[in-house]
Amino acid sequence: MDFKIINPHHFNPRVLFIMRRFFDQANKTESHSHDFLSLIYILGGEGKYEVGGKIYDVGAGTFFICNPEVTHHRILTGKQRIEEFHVGISDLHLKGLPENYLIPKGEEPLFGLNRYRQEVISCINEIISEQQRNDETSVLMLKCIVMKLLVYIIKERYFSVCRPEKDVIPIERYGKTAMVDNIIAFLNENYMKPISLAQISANTYLSPVYVSKVFKDATGESPINYLIHLRLSKACELLESSDASVKEIARQVGYTDAYYFSKLFKKYYGISPMHYRKAGGKAAFRAHLQNEDEQM
C-alpha cells in the first residue's frame, strides 16, 4: 500500500455516541449492522461475539473494528457478563477506503494492538474519565480524544504508510524565512526559560537536524548559539542597568548555574561579568579593547 492513508487537513470525523455498559444474558440482541464505524473494546468479563458471521471468544482487551454493514452481536450464556466500551463514528474519510471504513473491506475485524496498545488503552481511559467529568467542555474534549484514538489505530494498522519520509509539515509550503522568524520570536520570548533544540523543533513540528540546518543557513549560526548570544546580550544589559548579583542575572537570562554562566560569559567576551560591570558596560569595554589593540 503506497498511499498516505490520512490527510490531516481533512480529518474531521463525527462522534455519534460513546457508550460504556455492562451486558449479561438478559441483554439479548439480534445480529445487526450499521452504516457507520463501530469500535468495540472489551473492558472486562468474558463471552462470545459474532462479528462478520464469525464467532469469537472475547475477554478483557479484545478489540473489534466493525466497518459499516459488518454484522455483530453479543452471545452470553449462564452467568457470563461483559463490560463493553463502544464508540460510533461517521464522516470518516481515509484515502483508498470507502466512507466510514477504518480497515479494508473484508479484513479481520478482531484487531491486534501491539506497538500502540498502551496509547489506545490510555485514550479509552481518558474518554471514560471525561464522560464522568461531564462539564461544558466535555463534548469537545471527547471528540479530540476520539480523534487521537483513531490516529493511534491508524498508526497501528498503517504504520509504514504513516511514517513520514519528509518533514511532517513541508517547509516549502510555508517558507523557510517564516520558520526562522518564528524560531527567533520563540527564543526572544522564552530565553529566560530552559530551552533545548528538541523544544525548538517541537515548536515547529520539524526534525532537530532540519531546524538546525535551515536556521544556520539563514542566520549563520545554530539555534542554540543564537540563544547563547541572546542570553549573554540580555545579561550585558542587566549588568549595565541594574545592581543585581551575577547569580540573579544568570537566573534572569536562563542559567541556573551562575558558575557556568560566568564561564560562558568570559568565553564569549574575554572578561568576567563582574569585570564587565566594573569596566562600565559595552561602550567602555570596547574602548578598552581598542586601546589595547592600538598599543600592540
Automatic annotation (TrEMBL):
<dbReference type="InterPro" id="IPR018062">
    <property type="entry name" value="HTH_AraC-typ_CS"/>
</dbReference>
<dbReference type="InterPro" id="IPR003313">
    <property type="entry name" value="AraC-bd"/>
</dbReference>
<dbReference type="Pfam" id="PF02311">
    <property type="entry name" value="AraC_binding"/>
</dbReference>
<dbReference type="Pfam" id="PF12833">
    <property type="entry name" value="HTH_18"/>
</dbReference>
<dbReference type="InterPro" id="IPR037923">
    <property type="entry name" value="HTH-like"/>
</dbReference>
<dbReference type="InterPro" id="IPR009057">
    <property type="entry name" value="Homeodomain-like_sf"/>
</dbReference>
<dbReference type="InterPro" id="IPR014710">
    <property type="entry name" value="RmlC-like_jellyroll"/>
</dbReference>
<keyword id="KW-0804">Transcription</keyword>
<feature type="domain" description="HTH araC/xylS-type">
    <location>
        <begin position="181"/>
        <end position="279"/>
    </location>
</feature>
<protein>
    <submittedName>
        <fullName>Transcriptional regulator, AraC family</fullName>
    </submittedName>
</protein>
<keyword id="KW-0238">DNA-binding</keyword>
<dbReference type="GO" id="GO:0003700">
    <property type="term" value="F:DNA-binding transcription factor activity"/>
</dbReference>
<dbReference type="GO" id="GO:0043565">
    <property type="term" value="F:sequence-specific DNA binding"/>
</dbReference>
<dbReference type="InterPro" id="IPR018060">
    <property type="entry name" value="HTH_AraC"/>
</dbReference>
<keyword id="KW-0805">Transcription regulation</keyword>
<dbReference type="InterPro" id="IPR020449">
    <property type="entry name" value="Tscrpt_reg_AraC-type_HTH"/>
</dbReference>
